Amino acid sequence: MTHALRRRRAGTPGLIATALTLGSLLAVVGCSAPGGSTAASTSAAAGAATSAGSTATAASGPVDCGTDPVTMKAYFETGFPLPKDLTDEFTKQYPNVTWDIREDQFAVITQNAARTLADSPPDLIRLPQLSSLAADGLLKDLDGYAASFGWDAWPESQLSQLRVAEDGTRGSGPLLAMGLNFSMTGVFYNKELAAKAGITAAPTTLAELDADLQKAKDAGIVPIAQFNGGATGGLAFPLQDLMAVYGSPTDINDWIFGKSGATIDTPANQQAAQHLKKWIDAGFFADDINAMDYATMMSRFTGGESLFMFNGDWESGNLDKQMPGNVGFFLTPPVESGGAQAAMSAPLTYGIAAGAEHADCAAFFLNWVATNQTARDIGVTVGGSHPMGPADAYMPTVEAGSVTAQTLEAGAKVGQDNGAMDFIANANGSIYAKSWTPQLQSLVAGQQTPEGLLTSVQADYVADQGN
Amino acid sequence: MASPLTSVRSDTAPPPPVPTSRRRARRARRPGAWLGWLFAAPAVVVYAVFVLRPLLLTVQYSFYQWNGIGASTWVGLDNYRRVVTDPELYGSILNAFELIVFFSFIPVILGLLVAATIRRIAESRLAVVARTVLFLPQVIPLVSAGIIWTWLLSSRGLVNQLLDLIGLGGTTRAWLGDFDTALPAVGVIGAWVLLGLCTLLLLAGMSKIDPGQYEAARIDGAGAIREFFSITLPSLRAEISVCITLTVIAALASFDIIYISTQGGPGGSTMVPGLQIFYLAFSDRRIGAASALAVALVVLVLVVVIPIQRLAKDNTA
């Protein structure tokens, strides 16, 4: 008895702490399963917003930014001047619209997108992988706007990648995002180094490319310094290009879009992976690519330290500035000369949050980017890529012989050959960091076979669909 | 504020029934005790809201399958089952244990040697310089340290240049991009960061040792090595245990150095639980699995650290 009492008294201050702890414990245990109620209200709000948006655009006249002062909330990607230049120009033309812009690296946006869209919905956001966001009803359905602005009259290939069906597959269903332009990848080369290695023209077949790589190596030049370190496996660029050389871009798209029964582990893709392995074994890549990030790759290329670089036309403007007249560009050549060519080509994706305050103005801006002459100029000279919009729309003239001119030309070829593919890293939210990257790094280190690489990625893909 | 609280307390408290407990009871009833808690209240509230609540929420989330936004599903212990069966998850824990060698053993052993050396030259200016240089990594943010070391260890970095210079050109490589060397390379960065902390802690411990003991030992004919093992080492038990505890936690819960230098690559060879939790929660959006791994990590740290504490206490008693 005494003992018990004594303990009780001595423990009085401790009791308060215990009570506080218990209080918070109860607060936690008292609340229901995480996300349950919030999710219901969020998706309800999203649904309401979507239908309101659609009906408003269909019924109530022009969609624009009005004349009252509007502050647009935007979330952009650091390191790319294009969106900022576009919003500046837009404010010049529509002075009542000002921009409140937050910028982050793409990887950070990827990690933040869902919570940002749910908690503080921006009017305009650079979007990572779409389908995981679509499932939670976080993005505004843009079909109503598409109808009122006439986007549906544009070439369908521009918008199909931005559609997500209810079952999570892409390529069909409601339009959930728009592009500021569409980018495309291929191979850049240093003209001076090419001449040094005795290469006089861009290769027209895969065999010629193989020969050129060997020539560079024989001349003591690093043929390709491709980034493949950290969480970003840059060998996915040449791998996907090779996949399109050996197989059909449609099959690759089906896999990325999540069509049922699609697999990446096909005989054609195995040939592509084996070809990549052949390049690795032949020493065509710098020996430290597994420790190389994107910035290092760029500085090695612009510093004249490697002949080739698999990269996208978003660098065209930059390369024209840094190495004027010294850079060439070609699409990965087909097996036989004159064959169809394909490339990773995807819209620079921007979306509107389901709960955005100024959705109409954001949609008006996206339409302006594609149709306004000055905006299209900016899209090409700053963004280096082809603007979105109707096939016969105004195209700015670019300096002949510049890389930008070459990439635009290559873009037209891909369009003709119907060879646009999304990036294999976009199949789902985690496939790039958790599957492609470690597998490609293992392939470089000789710890994975080309066949095993595709089998593993496919297994991860299936596992993620099950989740 | 204190008086009404005290009066309430004295109303409700029964009188102490036996004399033996009177003194203790009186101490508990003193107004000062309440006042003390009043001062601590803001900290307690902040601690409860920002430390205890997230901790408990993490435990709660670990029983659900949840993407962080939509509806969640109760899955019981499934997430924990995955932690122990999925090689990707327990593999990261094994990597963390390998890091203990670099983050803990090397800094503590080197720290002892360095501190003993500095103590012997305590009067010279060199000792001050050595102490400052060794402690510098503690002042530099880990992110900067990670970036600097990424340059040093790159294929054309200083480390490889030095190896070339002394004729070991054959061993040069991209240390952080090689499957065999990435984890040890990350470990070296950790050892570099933690060596200064251990040295300083141990040096402080050594300064408390009575110089008379050394004098006596020297009169008995003991050399530097004998002094170290017979006097210095046994006197530093408490400091060594603090060093080991801190560095083992740093190894098991490592995140920043690895996020900056390798991001878990190449091919997951430097993946640690801290980074894995981050990827699970933000890339995969599997909050439940991330929470389960986080809880497992907390338990693991306690399981490793508590025996170290016990051991140190038993020995000093």
UniProtKB/TrEMBL annotation, chain A:
Domain of life: Bacteria
Annotated keywords: Transport
Keyword Transport: yes
Transport is among the record's keywords: yes
Cross-referenced InterPro entries: Bact_solute-bd_prot1 (IPR050490)
Family: Belongs to the bacterial solute-binding protein 1 family.
PANTHER family: ARABINOSE-BINDING PROTEIN-RELATED, OSMOPROTECTIVE COMPOUNDS-BINDING PROTEIN GGTB
Protein name: Carbohydrate ABC transporter substrate-binding protein
Species: Nakamurella flavida
Automatic annotation (TrEMBL), chain B:
Chain residue ranges for the region called Disordered: 1-25
Domain ABC transmembrane type-1: 93-308
Keyword Membrane found: yes
Chief location category: membrane
Compartments (UniProt record): Cell membrane
Pfam family, one: BPD_transp_1
Keywords: Cell membrane, Membrane, Transmembrane, Transmembrane helix, Transport
Gene Ontology CC: one annotated term: plasma membrane
Membrane-spanning segments: 32-52, 93-116, 128-152, 182-204, 240-261, 287-308
Keyword Amino-acid biosynthesis: no
Membrane topology: Multi-pass membrane protein
Stored InterPro entries: ABC_transporter_permease, MetI-like, MetI-like_sf
GO BP terms, alphabetized: transmembrane transport
PANTHER family on file: ABC TRANSPORTER PERMEASE PROTEIN (PTHR30193), DIACETYLCHITOBIOSE UPTAKE SYSTEM PERMEASE PROTEIN NGCF (PTHR30193:SF41)
Similarity comment: Belongs to the binding-protein-dependent transport system permease family.
Protein name from the UniProt record: Sugar ABC transporter permease
Organism encoding this protein: Nakamurella flavida
